[in-house]
Amino acid sequence: MRKLVHFMHCSLDGFVAGPNGEMEWIKIDDEMFEHALQRTENADAGLYGRVTYDMMEAYWPTAGAQPNASKHDIDHSKWYNSVEKVVISKTMQGQLLDNTTIISDHVFDKIRVLKNKPGKEIVMFGSPGTAQSLMNEDLIDDIWLFINPILLGQGIPLFANLKARKKLKLLSSEMLPSGVVVLHYERVSE
């Protein structure tokens, strides 16, 4: 069975974005990019909510071809353009996009089918609303949290509306030079 791995930045007080979706506080550096590269090397599919997909689609298809592209831009753009993308969205229903599957109904059943297909990991960047609903159904296997050294006080919470307690096991922790703490958890079946 393929693992569904969630990759998310959050503030120390548990928010993934400010009240209006602000994310300028997220520290991005080469060490964080190295973690992203490791995850994408182990993944052959990307899973997104519609908002995150729109952000990714606006940048990554051409990022690696830009004259000033960084190594990360080149590597991630190549990965993004080559992998299967799965988008959970009711508003995109019926759209036909290259190398992209839109899931608009029976979401949990279709994610279970996707996880049972042969292949590598499925990685999900961001997408907090999608992550919350998938966590409620025990469909996320691993969580990588990048805890940024900031208190936002308010905003979009990392995990809201969970229906039940979820037990996690810490697999690794690391402090990056930027002060970001990287925590890798796996979900423990109860």
Describe this structure in words.
Helix content is 30%, strand content 31%. The chain is built from five helices and ten strands. The strands form two sheets. The protein has an eight-stranded mixed β-sheet with strand order 5-4-3-6-1-7-10-9, with helices on both faces. Strands 2-8 form a two-stranded antiparallel sheet. A hairpin with a 5-residue loop joins strand 9 (167-175) and strand 10. The longest helix is centred in the N-terminal third of the chain and has 14 residues, at 50-63. The radius of gyration is 16 Å and the shape is globular.
In short:
This protein has five helices and ten strands. It is α/β, with parallel strands linked by helices and 190 residues long.
Question: How do the strands and helices of this protein lay out in sequence?
Answer:
Elements: E1 4-11, E2 15-17, H1 30-41, E3 43-49, H2 50-63, H3 71-82, E4 84-88, E5 100-103, H4 107-116, E6 121-125, H5 128-136, E7 142-148, E8 156-157, E9 167-175, E10 181-188
Parallel strand pairs: 1-6, 1-7, 3-4, 3-6, 4-5
Antiparallel strand pairs: 2-8, 7-10, 9-10
Helix pairs in contact: 1-3, 2-3
